[in-house]
Amino acid sequence: MARAAIVVGVGAREGVGGAVCRRLGREGLVVYAAGRTAEKLDGVCDAIEGEGGSARPVVTDTTVESQVDALFETVRGAGDDLELTVYNAGNNHPGNLLSMETEYFEQAWRVCCLGGFLVGRGAARSMLPRGGTLVFTGATASVKARPPFLAFASAKWGLRALAQGMAREFGPQGLHVAHAIIDGGIDGEVLNSRFPEFKERVGAEGLLSPDAIADAYWTLHRRHRSAWTFEIDLRPFKETF
Ligand SMILES: NC(=O)c1ccc[n+]([C@@H]2O[C@H](COP(=O)([O-])OP(=O)(O)OC[C@H]3O[C@@H](n4cnc5c(N)ncnc54)[C@H](OP(=O)(O)O)[C@@H]3O)[C@@H](O)[C@H]2O)c1
């Protein structure tokens, strides 16, 4: 039986999902990398195997219940011992409220909130009663709703509420549930390809390093159970807040 982790919301190698997967691979866990795009998952898994680790790509749309359930079943079927699950999927797109389509609002909720419920439930079912760690990736919008990101903020607030409630319900049963507020831009493929001017504007060290976020997640997982954490916030040193 191998020690294993599931990371949901894995895209480019240069992103939080990719960095967390690589970090867990280096720690000796079998990494189940889940996202919607097979080529991207293969890229992340190849990188892990190239560093001597073990990884399995599992194409999963986190908004589809049967696919999320199948993901956890894959780990169970392999006989691996799931000790850490990370929910990282998120879709931050600006949207003006007056012209916002209902479908747009609902889609933000599906990815950022419903997917978190499906994965959180699957993790609790798989990791209890043995215990383990469940980490949710949040954003500034998890605690501050600012236009034009109201759909995103409402979904991320929902995710945070889910995480907080799960921490209260399952902590005493041995499941360490944590929520990470990523309070700044991430120096990864998503931001650098969509908003290259943002990096220029904030200047050197103005963005969060995905590897540094991955370090923080690993530290959360390694916490002694006499000193668990529900919430951390991470931001570049020069970020005002
Ligand atoms: N980027 C930022 O500046 C920033 C700032 C603060 C917080 N965050 C949060 O950090 C997390 C992501 O970090 P990141 O920006 O570095 O991106 P990332 O970890 O590189 O990528 C997340 C991946 O999630 C996957 N995904 C999206 N919808 C999905 C779905 N329905 N089912 C399964 N996978 C899905 C996407 O890949 P596919 O499209 O291939 O599925 C995407 O590439 C999100 O929770 C985001 O809200 C980001």
Report what the structure shows.
The protein has helices at 16-26, 38-50, 65-77, 102-127, 150-170, 189-194, 196-202, 210-222, and strands spanning 3-8, 30-35, 54-59, 81-87, 132-139, 175-182, 231-234. α4 (102-127) links the parallel β4 (81-87) and β5. The relative contact order is 0.14. It is globular, with a radius of gyration of 17 Å. The model has no long low-confidence stretch (mean pLDDT 97). A seven-stranded parallel sheet has the order 3-2-1-4-5-6-7, with helices on both faces. Helices cover 46% and strands 19% of the residues. It is of the alpha/beta class and 241 residues long. The chain has a single domain, classed as NAD(P)-binding Rossmann-like Domain (Rossmann fold). The N and C termini lie far apart (45 Å). α3 runs parallel beside α4. The chain contains eight helices and seven strands. NADP nicotinamide-adenine-dinucleotide phosphate binds next to α1, α4, β5 and α6.
Overview features:
Rossmann fold; globular; seven-stranded parallel β-sheet; 8 helices; binds NADP nicotinamide-adenine-dinucleotide phosphate
State the gist of this model:
This protein is an alpha/beta fold. The chain has helices spanning 16-26, 38-50, 65-77, 102-127, 150-170, 189-194, 196-202, 210-222; strands at residues 3-8, 30-35, 54-59, 81-87, 132-139, 175-182, 231-234. It has eight helices and seven strands, in the order E-H-E-H-E-H-E-H-E-H-E-H-H-H-E.
